[in-house]
């Protein structure tokens, strides 16, 4: 995990190609 925003309940990962992938957990 490269960036996490707990207030919004989402986080980002940085893939090998340098793109940012937004992950939204299913549980809210």
Describe what you observe in this structure:
The chain has 28 residues and is an all-beta fold. Helix content is 0%, strand content 43%. A 3-stranded antiparallel beta sheet has the order 1-2-3, with no helix packed on it. It is elongated, with a radius of gyration of 10 Å.
Put the structure in a nutshell:
With 28 residues, the chain is mainly β. The protein is built from no helices and three strands.
Percent strand: 35-45%
The helix count comes to 0
State the end-to-end CA separation: 19 Å
Q: State the order of secondary-structure elements, H for helix, E for strand.
A: EEE
Report the uncertain regions.
none
Shape: elongated
Salient structural properties:
28 residues, mainly beta, 3-stranded antiparallel beta sheet, 43% strand, elongated
Question: What topology emerges from the helices and strands here?
Answer:
Layout: E1 3-5, E2 10-14, E3 20-23
């Amino acid at each position: 995990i490269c960036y996490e925003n707990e207030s919004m309940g989402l986080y980002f990962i940085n893939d090998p190609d340098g793109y940012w992938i937004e992950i939204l957990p299913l549980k809210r």
